[in-house]
Amino acid sequence: MPLKNYQQRKGRLSATNQLDKQRHPGLFSGSVALLFCLVVTVMLYIKAVPNPTDVKAYTSSMASSMNLLLPVWLALLIGMNFLIRPLFKGIVKRIVDLPSITKQPMLRSAFDNMQYNVEGLIKLSRPVIVITLLVGNFIALFLNTKLLIDGHNSADYLYDLIFNLLFVFGAPIIISLANVLTSIGLFRLKTRTESAQYFFSGCPPNWLFKLKLIEIGTASLISVLITLFGTFLFAIPLLRVTYLGGGNIFKANWTVNCALTFGAFLLFFGCFILINGLALRTTKKYIE
Fold first, then answer.
1. How many other β-carbons are positioned within 10 Å of the β-carbon of residue 221?
2. CB burial of residue 232 (10 Å; 0-12, 13-18, 19+)
3. CA 64, CA 245: separation in Å to the nearest integer?
4. Are 166 and 174 contacting, i.e. CB atoms less than 8 angstroms apart?
5. Contacts of 179 (CB under 8 A, 6+ apart)
């Protein structure tokens, strides 16, 4: 039976959940960082709109606003880094507790696997989420303040700025991707025994592949939601600074953030599927 391992894992999952309840240093640190972001955001929203005709007052106001916005960006990265784990685990737990899941053996097995391997999935997702927020929000910082406030919003100027910023972050992006690819391979080795148990219990290779497809696809979707949540938290103070500088917030550009988010996790999902697809072919050849 595909679900035969569920009861065996239940005791270990319960013990892990009890341990998680006893220690949540990441949750506390992340909450403090986000509380700092909230306080600074409130300070920006109660800040008076500067008079653009008074050059000295306007320049001083914008300088102080940017000095507040940059720490928000850094604190948000730190906070999200700590909060990825509780957010990811919380979403997985909510999905597993859905009554309708128990009616579908494949879904039940896939989400049971996710819950059992959640720590490994978090380790895979965290660097992708953090680097996407780092690059995406930094680009948004320039696009939605400098471009809108200064009025340099031509397509050529926009593409040139994006290209330069991506070039600056090219090295950490490549290093992070290499780390993720290596981690995916290690994760595959770690879960090989689990797949073998399903296989020798009578599950066909195509069933196992669909199981992994659901598991990996759900993990990627959860990661996308967490990344977009972090982008939204940064957008609130960023748009306020843009407004204080006289920019039109309705012309704010979030295309780069969305493209980076979905592109990063599409690559993440594709690498996972490639590795499991190769495993599927190997298993079929073994049967033949």
1. 13
2. exposed
3. 11
4. no
5. 127
Which of 244, 258, 284 shows the shortest CA–CA distance to 62? 244
Closest CA to 89 of 281, 222, 199: 222
Query: What's the Rg (C-alpha) of the chain?
Result: 23
- Distance, CA of 162 to CA of 139 (rounded, Å): 7
What is the DSSP-derived secondary structure letter of residue 143? I
Using CA atoms, how far apart are residues 167 and 94, in angstroms rounded to an integer?
Answer: 39
Kindly state the tokens that stand for 108: 């039940």
Residues in CB range of 2: below 8 A, 6 or more apart: 105, 106, 108, 109, 198, 201, 203, 207, 211
pLDDT by 10s per residue, the chain, length 288? 444 444 444 444 444 554 454 455 678 888 999 999 999 999 999 988 888 788 788 888 888 888 888 899 999 999 999 999 999 999 998 888 888 777 778 888 888 888 888 888 888 888 889 888 988 888 888 777 766 566 555 566 666 766 776 677 667 667 767 777 777 777 776 666 666 676 666 667 777 788 888 888 899 999 999 999 999 999 999 988 888 877 777 777 788 888 889 988 888 888 888 877 776 666 555 555
Amino acid of residue 206 = N
Taking alpha carbons only, the member of 38, 36, 65 closest to residue 49 is 65
Contact predicate 96/9, CB 8 Å: no
Residue 68: partners with Cβ closer than 8 Å, 6 or more residues away: 40, 43, 44, 237, 241
Other C-beta atoms within 10 Å of 83: how many? 21
**Stated pTM of the model:** 0.82
